[in-house]
Write a structure and sequence with these properties.
With 140 residues, the protein is an all-alpha fold. The chain has a domain of 80 residues: Orthogonal Bundle (Helix Hairpins). The protein is built from six helices and no strands. The longest helix has 25 residues. The protein is globular, with a radius of gyration of 18 Å. Bound molecules: magnesium ion. Magnesium ion binds next to helix 3 and helix 4.
């Protein structure tokens, strides 16, 4: 597989993540492409059901929180070292997808590109938490 070299402008660590994602998604994949495709698919799903009138930022923010709570519920009363079975991971996978779908809905409702926002936020986090200062931060 050919590895695409992309200058993210965000430092070596972030560039490695982008390259790893490109390796997983295939050589024609460009960061943000998949999210844009999903955003269009979700927009089509909403529009064909005339649900746009309900998809206001406040309602979507509530929906994100509800779906995040459904994800959290899967961990309720479990110890950190509890084993998860295949069915548990499938539930985690689907609730995580619900959260991501509503995050994309928020981007659609507010007219921004979620891929760009994620990219920008990763850049902010890279600058806020330089690797040399942040390694094992929570073990101190
Ligand atoms: Mg759900």
């Amino acid at each position: 597989m050919r590895v695409k070299r992309i200058n993210t402008g965000l430092g070596q660590r972030t560039t490695k993540y982008v390259i790893a994602i490109c390796e997983i998604m295939g050589e024609n994949f460009m960061p943000g492409q998949k999210i844009q495709e999903l955003a269009e698919k979700i927009r089509g799903f909403i529009d064909t059901r005339s649900w746009s009138k309900y998809h206001k930022p406040k309602n979507i923010a509530i929906a994100i929180s509800v779906e995040a709570a459904e994800l959290l519920e899967l961990f309720q009363w479990r110890a950190s070292n509890d084993e998860f079975d295949k069915e548990d991971y499938e539930k985690i996978r689907m609730e995580t997808a619900d959260v991501a779908i509503y995050a994309i809905c928020m981007a659609n409702a507010c007219n921004f590109d979620l891929g760009d926002a994620i990219d920008e936020k990763i850049g902010q986090n890279v600058r806020k938490y330089p690797a040399e200062d942040s390694k094992d931060l929570f073990d101190r």
